[in-house]
Amino acid sequence: MHTTTIDGATLGWTDTGAGEPTLLVHAGVFGAWFEPLAGLLGGRVIRMLRAGYTGGAAVREPIELAGHAAHAAALLDRLGTGPATVVSHSSGCAIALQLALDRPDLVARLVLSEPPLIDELLDPADQAEVRSTVGAALGGAMAAAARGDIPTAFDAFNSVVCGHDYRAVLIDVLGEDGLARAERDAEFFFTNEVPAIGRWTPPDPARITTPVRLVRGADSPGATHRLIARLAAVLPDASVTTIAGANHLLPLTHPAELAGAISSSSVAAAGSPSHAGTG
Predict the structure, then answer these.
(1) Which CB contacts under 8 angstroms, 24+ apart, belong to 275-278?
(2) Residue 214 forms beta bridges with which residues?
(3) Residue 141: how many CA atoms within 13 Å on its side-chain side?
(4) What positions does the domain AB hydrolase-1 occupy (predicted)?
(5) Are 83 and 104 in contact (CB under 8 A)?
(6) What is the dihedral angle through the alpha carbons of 173, 73, 65, 263, rounded to the nearest 10 degrees?
(7) Fewer CB atoms < 10 Å away: N or C end of the chain?
């Protein structure tokens, strides 16, 4: 893992393979979301470890989501990749959308896995229910984080968003040490990233002209499915892939299927017709 400092923030990356570039922009809470996926992709794969998740000195200054997008752009510029397929998950999808708007020259296509359940993206009919479930869990997590109790915050949030068996999944995929590292990473998420998500104004999806593949887990809540259907309806060039047996943990539990969705996205962008639907 290489590290570099951009605008005073330290971020990490790995850069493997050769050919068409893919940039992996992980979700919040912890930085290891795309570890299983990275080795399954062809071409040149750049796995970015976002500022706040490198395990270095704590980040004291707020980093807006546009700042994370600017870090991704600066990394691609430094590596001289040219336009890349940008793969993201959960809150990473917000960063990827911002990157596509701010630096369209660097984004050949987007793969958005399980975009975050935030009001600005949700179907309005789902907002009240999501506030009462995910919002309540996040509120409890934020209260615990404010007391300095990050393990309780980590459990309160992930139990609702990822399912009550999330710890078993993390141990199975990342090991006991990986789970411990994920809990340490979460401090940045609750103290810095969650407030930044609350301040983020999503770009008008109609302005995102790059091809977009939206990926959802079949076992994810209906609100996620409707959010993705809503995005697919307004994005100019969008298609949808549903992964059977998966939920919000799909980059960890179904990396091969996600790799297949990324590969088929590349084929579609190269000339096959793109459509909203399931695949």
Answers:
(1) 275/239, 276/229, 276/232, 276/233, 276/238, 276/239, 276/240, 277/239, 277/240, 278/240, 278/241, 278/242
(2) 112, 240
(3) 26
(4) 23-260
(5) no
(6) -40
(7) N
Q: Given phi > 0 = left and psi -120 to 50 = alpha, else beta, which region is 236? A: alpha
Q: Is the pLDDT of residue 276 over 70?
A: no
Instruction: Give pTM, 2 decimals.
Output: 0.93
How far out from the chain centre does Cα 228 lie? 14
For the chain, list the domains and their CATH numbers: 2-123+203-270 (3.40.50.1820)
- 38-42, 88-92, 273-277 — which is least confidently predicted? 273-277
Q: Tell me how far apart the alpha carbons of residues 183 and 150 are, in angstroms, rounded to a whole number.
A: 7
Count of Cβ atoms closer than 10 Å to residue 5 Cβ: 10
Q: Please check whether residue 170 is in contact with residue 178, taking contact to mean a CB–CB distance below 8 angstroms.
A: yes
